[in-house]
Amino acid sequence: MGQEERKNKAKLEKTQIQLSSTSNEYEAAVKVLEETTGKWNRDWKAACDVRTSGLKYTRLLMKQ
Question: What pTM did the predictor assign?
């Protein structure tokens, strides 16, 4: 095996290790994003429900 081939093989191994690490970081970030999106959607829905309930209550008071 020539010197150039050894260098290329070492670079390839280093790149594969970096790819694995980056892939793990990406998967972790996607998981955090999914959790954050779910929480945001629940909070948003709850806020809309509260706002809607308040409007219904106000409408009922105005009818009286």
Answer: 0.62
CA–CA separation, 10 and 63 (whole Å): 79
Grouping H, G, I as helix, E, B as strand and the rest as coil, residue 64 is coil
C-alpha distance from residue 12 to each of 2, 9, 34, 39 (Å): 15, 5, 32, 40
Six-digit token string for 54? 């308040």
Nearest-5° angle of CA 11, CA 16, CA 20?
A: 150
User: What are 8-25's pLDDT values in tens digits?
Assistant: 999 999 999 999 999 999
Q: Is 1 helix (H, G, I), strand (E, B) or coil?
A: coil
Torsion sign, CA atoms 7, 10, 12, 14: negative
